[in-house]
Amino acid sequence: MFSARRMLQCLVAILAIALVGPVAAQAGGNRGEDGPGGNWHGHHKWKHGGKPKPPPPPAIRVVGSGLEGPFGIDAKGNKVLVAEQGANQISAVKLRNGAVDSIFSGTAASPAGVARVGGGVAFVTSGPDAPDAPLTGPATVYFGYEGGTPQPLANLLQYELDHNPDGQLQFDPETHEPLDSVSNPFAIIKAPGRPFVFVADAGGNTVYSISRSGEPTPFFVPPVINTGACAGQQNNDPEHTGCDPVPTGLALGPCNTLYVSTLTSEVPGEGRVYVLNASTGKVLDVIGGFNGPTGVAVSPNGTVYVSELLEGAPEGDGPPPEGFDPSTIGRIVRVAKNGTRTYAQVTQPVGLDYADGTLYSSAWSIAGLFLGIPKAGQVVAVSESAFSATEH
């Protein structure tokens, strides 16, 4: 089944395979990634009678490390907020020295996305691990102020069960088991204008606008994909054949636009980024040709960045090739305004954010859960020099 549930199954299977392979590089030890503050290596060049020539900044610089499953991020000012899914907490990474502080710990369920909004912090938790899980905690939007206790704002699992925006059959008529991931929120972002936040629900195939009072409204329901390898694929019911869109990332762009990345059931080449009017939800453009995108960011000049979490992961159900290096999994695709694409090899990126002239990304995001490397998660700053025309 090419669906959100199939997507999650593929994710587990691929990375369980990687678990048995050798881990050739620990966090921060590959492709020029350095520790907090940028510990550059190499020789200084001296001019006769002059001062040492400063080294160029590293292409990929670690600004925070020791994280457990960093997914969504929000970069602004002197720190980056991080949804640590593996630690059940929201953290802040200080850009000055890489120090990591907990903002909200012991969240009710694993947080997947985080956003500054209304003077406080909003975050969204992942969907339930089992069909009979309680409705409180998973698939919920929370809001709170630093130093306080976050409060639930909207329950997207309950909304999905009551309203089912994508219209797909949710439960098997005979076994009553869910046919798909019913609700699995993945990203959250401050909304311009009257809505409080936008939330991408990967399991529910819906982007919601949510009011300050906590009322969800479907803002954009991406269509089922029926091109390429997705054409005619079996899904939850005969009326919705093809690949589920699976929205994963959100970013505000210039001229009142909202960018939405969609995983498209991890089918290579079928991932998309939708460009919407941020006020009406009208589709203005569609950028295709991605391999399982999990995050999106946009610069003020309209350059689009898309994270591909599993790009380069070994295929199939057997063991990985001898000498396989899990640090090579993942990349970020940069799409210029003229459509030209370049690539930066960043290990297992999920969340992206462009702030103050810098692209930030989570990295080694699934190293703890699937590779057995504790506290390997990072937040990295990715410079423009990290991108090349070579498809890593």
List the helices and strands and how they pair.
Elements: H1 4-19, E1 60-67, E2 70-76, E3 79-84, E4 89-94, E5 100-105, E6 111-117, E7 120-125, E8 140-144, E9 151-155, H2 156-163, E10 185-190, E11 197-201, E12 206-210, E13 216-220, E14 247-253, E15 257-262, E16 271-277, E17 283-290, E18 293-298, E19 304-308, E20 331-335, E21 341-344, E22 352-355, E23 358-363, H3 367-371, E24 377-382
Antiparallel strand pairs: 1-24, 2-3, 3-4, 4-5, 6-7, 7-8, 8-9, 10-11, 11-12, 12-13, 14-15, 15-16, 16-17, 18-19, 19-20, 20-21, 22-23, 23-24
Rg estimate, integer Å = 20 Å
Mean pLDDT: 85
* Uncertain spans: 1-49
The number of helical segments is 3
| Number of distinct beta strands | 24
Can you identify the CATH class?
A: Mainly Beta
CATH topology name: Neuraminidase
| Terminal residue distance | 29 Å
Query: Which sequence of SSEs, written as H and E, runs from N to C?
Result: HEEEEEEEEEHEEEEEEEEEEEEEEHE
Give the CATH H-level superfamily. TolB, C-terminal domain
Shape: globular
Q: What fraction of residues sit in β-strands?
A: 35-45%
Largest sheet: 4 strands, antiparallel
Order of the strands making up the biggest sheet: 1-24-23-22
Notes on the protein architecture:
This protein has 392 residues and is mainly β. The chain has one domain (4-32, 58-386): 6 Propeller (Neuraminidase). The protein has helices at residues 4-19, 156-163, 367-371, and strands at 60-67, 70-76, 79-84, 89-94, 100-105, 111-117, 120-125, 140-144, 151-155, 185-190, 197-201, 206-210, 216-220, 247-253, 257-262, 271-277, 283-290, 293-298, 304-308, 331-335, 341-344, 352-355, 358-363, 377-382. The protein has a 4-stranded antiparallel β-sheet with strand order 1-24-23-22, with no helix packed on it. Strands 2-3-4-5 form a 4-stranded antiparallel β-sheet, with no helix packed on it. The two termini are 29 Å apart. Residues 1-49 have low confidence and may be disordered.
